[in-house]
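User: Please predict the structure of the protein below. I'd like the answer in structure-token form so I can feed it into my own downstream comparison script.

Assistant: Understood. Taking the following sequence of 351 residues as input:
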Amino acid sequence: MGRKASHVALECTLQSHPNMVILGEEVATSKMTLFDLTTQICDAVQARAEQDKYHGVILLPEGLIENIPEVYALLQEIHGLHAQGVSVQDISSRLSPWASALFEFLPPFIRKQLLLHPESDDSAQLSQIETEKLMAQLVETEMNKRLKSGQYTGKKFNAICHFFGYQARGSLPSNFDCDYAYALGHIAYHLIGAGLNGYMATVTNLKKPVSQWQCGGAPITAMMTVKRWLRGRRASQIGKPAVHPAHVDLKGRPYELLMRNATRFLLDDIYSNPGPLQFEGPGANAKTITLSVEDQDYVGRIQQLRSYLDKVRDMVKPGCPEEVLKAALSAMASVSDVLTTMAAPAYRTEY
């Protein structure tokens, strides 16, 4: 679940403590290949085997496959050929040499799934691509090689794969989920009543009690950017406006918490079962760990803001270029206007 961003995988990891999780953002940022991922998982399996632990849980996000640079480039070629009207049967013969080599390397079931027509946003049908089975097969092949060469002396590797798609969406909503949905519906009602169109209902200050939530609306166009890419070989540049996902911040507190506990998760069996949702009692109003952890970094963000202001102060001083001064004045004026609006009593009025 979660499409290309790995927020769901990160939250599930912090809640249940599997031995390993591979976030799509890590893979994309580090430009990891299939071989890199296979090696990383095999090293983890071998490390646990050295402690006589021949079991383990690895969590993969749904969108992992699109975050692997080599596979993403292959998908772009395939989608470009789809757009040109090339039949599924002929696509493999029309691929560039490097893409064809990667395509032929992949197992037959993955090839078939990669050839599926893309979604309306030009992304792959991620729920139909069995990434977990692909990685299991690659890891098994590598572990067998290590076993034969003597690099690995443990038991034969065997993987059992589970895909939690509809199951992840089929859970009962928590009290927080219900309050959030009610608030969004209430905001939507007021947006319609005000005659506004093309707005998205927003709720901020979610870390606080419901009575302190701040409701509002954001123009959808304000959240859109134009992403440009080359579609297919020798194709011209294409620009398409879209609301792009907010990826996991690899410098944020939730990811920092994961990294701090990664070794313990890998080598120690500290699995956690949060249990079924509670609607009464001490845990009924619990919020996600990622949201709660961000709340703990309030002072840190104040300090970060001060460091930015110090940088501006150092760069904008007598003798600085006129262009720098103009840019600083324009940016600071905009920030001042936004903060003044947000500080106004009318902005804080609750519905």
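That's the full token string. Residues 235 and 245 are 25 Å apart (CA to CA).
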